[in-house]
Amino acid sequence: MVRADLDKDPREVAAMFDDIARRYDLANTVISFGQDRRWRTRTHRALDLQPGERVLDLAAGTAVSTVELAHSGAWCVAADFSLGMLEQGRHRGVPMVAADALHLPFADESFDAVTISFGLRNVVDTEAALREMARVTRPGGRMVVCEFSRPTWQPFRWSYQIYLKLLPWVAGIVTSNQEAYAYLTESIAEWPAQRELAEIIHAAGWRDVAWRNLMGGSVALHRAVKPEPAAPAEGQGDAGKAGRPAAE
Questions:
Q1: What are the pLDDT digits (tens) for 63-83?
Q2: Which residues does the annotation place in the binding site for S-adenosyl-L-methionine?
Q3: What CATH architecture does domain 10-229 belong to?
Q4: What confidence category does residue 4 fall into, taking pLDDT thresholds of 50, 70 and 90?
Q5: Do you know which PROSITE patterns this protein is assigned to (predicted)?
Q6: Between β-strands 111-117 and 54-58, what pairing exists: parallel, antiparallel or unpaired?
């Protein structure tokens, strides 16, 4: 069995996802009680995509989420560093790129929107990945992060924590890799709560950061906008545009 640890070495994380790729989508549906479909729909709506826009679906896995986004009429590309995941999704007919979230193989301002679902938690440097996502997004473009989070109601939080302890056993039946899902529960426990993640997103250069809780806060959608360049001060001309921070 292959699993990663909380050091999140990219090679180990990619190898772990390669190992569970064949039954990954089925496992997601089982352990989420079918809510994974609803989360994809909510992510799609939060991005507010328009026909003809260019969208990056990062950590797309087998591209199930990319297909959902493409229903908008936008041009969507699936990117993931697990070749096994991409191979499992080849039949879905969407563009696919092998990519590291910390070193995306795209030019600056290539996309109108970027999203990552249940993948940011697996990157070794969260803020660096968010900055890289901002780099490839045009000014005024949108980002949505869908990720596990912190239940807001204490009684539900207790039951959720109990479920997380059982999750590796349930997923192990589906994927035959219980250890990979032990990593999943550990990474969820270490992941920042809603407000903390919003602060990290803001520190990475995104603005208008807000979130919406799903399933009692066990999952959260964080939405943000890449700021437009600040207008040059009077008399500066074009030279004043370079290196100026965007207005908050």
A1: 999 999 999 999 999 999 999
A2: 62, 80, 100-101, 117
A3: 3-Layer(aba) Sandwich (3.40)
A4: confident
A5: SAM_MT_UBIE (PS51608), UBIE_1 (PS01183), UBIE_2 (PS01184)
A6: parallel
